[in-house]
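On clarity, I found the account of how folds are encoded harder to follow than it need be. An entry of this sort, consisting of the sequence and the corresponding backbone structure tokens, reads as follows:
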Amino acid sequence: MQSKIAELLRTVKDSGAHIFYSFSDEEKYIHNALTYLTVAIEQGNHIMLIENDRLMPLIEKSFPSTFGKEHIERIHKMNNYDFYCYRRNFNKDTVLSYLKEMIAPYLENNIQILTWAHVEWRDQEDIFRTIGKYEKEVENLLRQTNLINICSYDSNRIPDSLMEALMDSHDYFMTDDSLKKI
């Protein structure tokens, strides 16, 4: 996967990309996250890592052996629950506003920032339609800013209706072992 991720980041560097990652193997997920971080940092980028409290320490455990201090400073971490459920539920307008606010300083200073976002949600009425609409709006934002964004989802939590919306709102589809243009 490392060569596929590296090639993709080189290919879409100037145009941006919206990548849907449906994962099922936690170990491969962590490996792929570290690969993405490594390749992005090697290319001189900053990374916004939006991850849950359980997986973040497993990813961070490899930082000292993988990155130097100056590289670690380019990884900006955030809890995904704080990001997606800022006001106790997944509100697409709030999340989009928050995302724009987070990336604005980088864009204003011509600093390339990529994102890795593990999307999770609480039980909420009409959540799958809300997530689908959110991803469509993120797609529009990415087209305007040329950002590269991986949206990772646990495959066990994706019903068919959401899978269809996610496939329609992303440029690339990634699994634990593959990466292809949609």
